[in-house]
Amino acid sequence: MKIVATLGPATSDLERVDALFRAGADVFRLNFSHGAQEDHARNVEHIRRVEKKLGRPIAILADMQGPKLRVGRFAAGHVVLQWGRPFRLDLSPQPGDGSRVQLPHPEIMAAASVGYSLLLDDGRIQLEVVRQTPEYLETRVTVGGRLSDRKGVNLPGAILPIPALTVKDRSDLAFALDCGVDYIGLSFVQRPEDVAEARELVGGRALLMSKIEKPQALEKLDEIFQLSDAVMVARGDLGVELPPEDVPLIQKRVIRAAHRWGKPVVVATQMMESMTESPSPTRAEASDVATAVFDGADAVMLSAETATGKYPIETVRMMDRILSRTERDEDLRATRASMRPTPEKSSADAISVAARQVAETIEASVIVAFTTSGVTALRIARQRPDCVILGLTPSMETARRLALPWGVHPLVCEGTFTMTETVAMATQLSSRAGIARRGDEIVVVAGVPFGKSGGTNSLRVARVGAVSRD
């Protein structure tokens, strides 16, 4: 399984990026909710320098902020709301106090009705609407507490007529694409139309990862998957708008859908949260990471743990240890077998299934997938074989994108023109990468004619150190 690490103030220098990658990170996330574009550009430069130094493709995920709804500012920086007291949310830009604050989102005024509950600051504050007008909402505090500047607002169950990409997002998106990122994270997806709009703007320059963090997205999950290249189970906002007991079940549901569609899925939010302050995780956090493995996720993500935490390198190293130990568990093999989706009626899917079966039968050390677009490696990863998948491609762009899917070790190689050349290169590179030893049998999957995307139709068994003949 892969690890996505978020860069931030605690990991914004070249040495820390290098250390995170060596500790086990496969993908670096740039969180455009924080930091200036110049900060992200510098991080991209650091990542590419590490990539060149170590000769390993690294994926970059540019995570857009999205239409995060927030209250305005308070004159004193914060207030303490008391249970049962009135509190007004209005459009006035004046600093707030204990009786009111700005809510600069008229669409919320239109969507909320009397009796509706608003959740502030990740659900820590709850307000009930007692009067609704186009200019303000009169509410009653049902769960009080400290509320400070710019805290988020959630409206459980409401579909708001707002785009998934704000003006800021569009600027950040263009900037990220110019920087050459590999994945774009689309936040607060509500409808398939949100993904379609983003896909048109991206124009194939990066892959699109839809973040499932709104309950409304679950109603159109298959349509969203169809338009996405990858998905993320973003449990933060999802856990605010839904009962906590529903979130684990939704995680499993989204991962099952990802397997069905053959697309990578990331599990995110609070996986090792205690390690922002502590050098070791809680046992519950270790179990959470292991559960993501058993659920069948492709990757797990660290947010504040590596962006602002005190122990970013130790956190990645610990997560890598938990993943490695879990993936050696005997019960996991049976679990993976039970989750394999029904193969599609295509030669490419048939070859991918056959590659996994042959590899298991001969106990191959690696399945080598020659791929131009990355689809061949993705199909094999969907089968969750017991061995490593070596994704060989002549495209650096494809190699970077393959840093995210489960089990794929991507490498850039020269193009080949015959099966003999392909098998020879597969044995040499798998040995050089330390994945196979002399005498090991490997499974080689490719498409003939070579260089044509989407034509996976050939399978060969070879022995490392032996001479291949057509």
What does this protein look like?
- The structure is a single chain.
- The protein is of the alpha/beta class.
- The protein folds into three domains: 2-66 and 164-328, Phosphoenolpyruvate-binding domains (TIM Barrel, Alpha-Beta Barrel); 78-154, PK beta-barrel domain-like (M1 Pyruvate Kinase, Domain 3); 340-463, Pyruvate kinase, C-terminal domain (Pyruvate Kinase, Chain: A, domain 1, 3-Layer(aba) Sandwich).
- Helix content is 38%, strand content 23%.
- The protein contains 17 helices and 21 strands.
- The chain has helices at 14-23, 37-54, 106-111, 167-179, 192-202, 215-218, 221-227, 235-241, 247-261, 283-295, 304-307, 312-327, 330-339, 347-362, 375-382, 396-401, 419-432; strands at residues 2-7, 27-31, 59-63, 78-81, 86-90, 100-102, 117-120, 125-132, 136-143, 145-148, 153-154, 183-186, 207-212, 230-234, 265-268, 299-302, 366-370, 388-393, 408-412, 441-447, 456-463.
- The strands form four sheets. It has an eight-stranded parallel β-barrel with strand order 1-2-3-12-13-14-15-16, surrounded by seven helices. Strands 6-5-9-8-7-11 form a six-stranded mixed beta sheet. A five-stranded mixed beta sheet has the order 19-18-17-20-21, sandwiched between helices.
- Helix 1 (14-23) crosses helix 2 and helix 10 packs across helix 12 (312-327).
- The longest helix is centred in the N-terminal third of the chain and has 18 residues, at 37-54.
- The two termini are 35 Å apart.
